[in-house]
UniProtKB/TrEMBL annotation:
GO cellular component: membrane
Organism: Colletotrichum tabaci
GO molecular function, one term: ABC-type transporter activity
Gene3D superfamilies found in the cross-reference section: ABC transporter type 1, transmembrane domain (1.20.1560.10), P-loop containing nucleotide triphosphate hydrolases (3.40.50.300)
Name the UniProt record assigns to this protein: Rapamycin complex subunit LST8 target
Keyword Membrane attributed: yes
């Protein structure tokens, strides 16, 4: 049996194995920490952008296609979560290997600094020259991609109208043009990236050739160990691969930072609802407001354009003067496009007037905090949407201000008057009861919520259009009886 005698070679071997394992372990910890922190930051940015969009005024939301918003909240978030994290992690690993290789070469032969320093300077200069251009192209590509996605969603949603009006050729041409423009920007970005790779390959070729010349010149003057020469040349020959991969992942990370810029714009730029017209200092809101419920409009005009800027050619309402006495029950009647929904939006401050004054009890609603206004001026839209993952009771009384008996009494009375039979159990899930947006049951839920609150001002925006004529009459009689002292504005055709 031969005894094992450790030698210096064995010590070196074990040392290199230990260093390799330590490098792998530390790299794993670094990648894990980087991934977790970037995911947390991405989630926070996405949540901030979504919250900002939710509270944005209608004048802002109506000027941005739905496909554009969905592109930023889905595609850009995916690019940050998947592409940016992976590209950043890989770029840092490859560039660290590149720098460690250059450092090892300098340690082995300090004279190689005359090659390494100018070479690194040339690489950095090329990156700084091409990086802004690549980012600007990627920004343009992202905008064009959002426009293409918006066009695709609009074509799909309007497929029926396109078929009816026989405009299929125009729709195909419109969509194809958007896709072609987006592809052109993508090809231009790819071409810029390839030119950068060609220039970096040329720089690395010069570094390799110059390193060989320096090593040969140094060996002719000072004898160098073949081990050192082999180590230097092996390191310089693997540098192009590390540089190419590091550059590719770096530009990919730069590309994906465009998604961060777009999400940041949604998290900071959209105005908050109520910031379009800030409350004035005149007229403090009393604790009893609104005491009567009188509504008065003086030369009110409203437009759905950008920022609510009035355009007389497309104004939804123009120079309207109206007074609704307190406790009056009125009906707003008109054909589609007459401005009925715009009037409702003005009462709830979903839309601010372009000019004129809308006052409740002689107090302009722009002087009233939004939460206070919408807690006293309630509305039942024609497409009531039940609260997701909630019971019947949660939909009728979300804040639990009333007893189960009161909620059941109101729901039972409305169901009977509407001819829907007895009231459903309050603890039944709304989705399980097949209550969807715009159905008769959903509208009765919204109406029951209003009857329990007994507000001073109630707006019914075609709230009973899914019921029959006789059921509509019976339910409205019950509403007028319950809200006898309140101001009711009923919008209908």
């Amino acid at each position: 049996m031969v005894d094992f005698v450790p030698t210096r070679a064995h010590a070196y071997a074990f040392g290199f194995v230990a260093l390799g394992l330590a490098e792998a372990f530390l790299a794993h910890l670094f990648c894990l920490h980087l991934t977790v922190k970037m995911l947390q930051a991405s989630h926070g940015l996405w949540e901030c952008a979504l919250r900002r969009l939710v509270v944005a005024p209608m004048s802002f939301l109506q000027t941005i296609p739905l496909g554009t918003m969905m592109d930023r909240l889905s595609r850009d978030v995916y690019m940050v979560d998947r592409g940016l994290i992976e590209a950043t992690r890989s770029a840092m690993l490859h560039l660290s290997r590149l720098l460690s290789g250059l450092s090892l070469m300098l340690v082995m032969q300090l004279k190689l600094a005359v090659v390494v320093v100018p070479g690194l300077a040339a690489v950095i200069a090329m990156m700084l020259h091409y990086a802004p251009r690549l980012k600007s192209i990627r920004c343009r590509e992202a905008d064009l991609r959002a426009h293409a996605n918006a066009a695709s969603s609009e074509v799909i949603e309007g497929a029926d109208c396109i078929y009816v009006y026989k405009t299929e050729p125009w729709a195909r041409s419109f969509l194809g043009e958007r896709l072609d423009v987006c592809s052109n920007a993508r090809f231009l970005a790819a071409a810029n990236l390839r030119w950068l790779e060609v220039r970096l390959d040329g720089i690395m070729t010069c570094i390799i050739a110059t390193t060989g010349l320096v090593v040969v010149w140094t060996s002719s003057r000072i004898p160098l160990s073949p081990t050192i020469v082999g180590l230097i040349m092996s390191q310089v020959l693997v540098l192009p691969a590390s540089l190419r991969q590091g550059m590719r992942f770096s530009t990919s990370a730069l590309h994906h930072t465009v998604a961060i810029d777009r999400l940041v714009s949604y998290a900071t730029e959209p105005p908050r609802e109520g910031e379009v017209l800030r409350p004035s200092s005149s007229g403090a809101v009393g604790s009893s407001w609104p005491a009567a419920g009188e509504i008065r409009l003086e030369k009110v005009s409203a437009s759905h354009g950008q920022g609510g800027i009035l355009d007389t050619a497309t104004a939804a309402l123009h120079d309207i003067t109206l007074e609704i006495p307190a406790g009056m029950h009125v009906a707003v009647v008109g054909p589609t496009g007459a401005g009925k929904s715009t009037f409702v939006s003005l009462l709830l401050r979903l839309l601010d007037p372009s000019s004129g004054t809308l006052a409740v009890d002689d107090l302009s609603i722009t002087d009233v905090p939004l939460q206070r206004l919408r807690s006293h001026v309630t509305a039942v839209p024609h497409d009531v949407v039940p609260i997701p993952c909630s019971t019947i009771r949660d939909n009728v009384d979300p804040e639990r201000r009333h007893s189960d008996a009161d909620v059941y009494r109101v729901m039972s009375a409305l169901d009977t008057l509407a001819g829907l039979g007895g009231a459903t159990p309050l603890d039944l899930d709304a989705a399980a009861n097949c209550i969807s947006a715009g159905t008769a049951r959903a509208q009765l839920l919204g109406l029951a919520r209003v009857l329990l609150q007994e507000p001073r001002i109630c707006v019914l925006d075609e709230a009973l259009d899914t019921l029959g004529v006789s059921a509509d009459v019976r339910v409205m009689q019950r509403v007028r009886k319950t809200l006898w002292g309140s101001t009711i504005v009923a919008v209908t055709h």
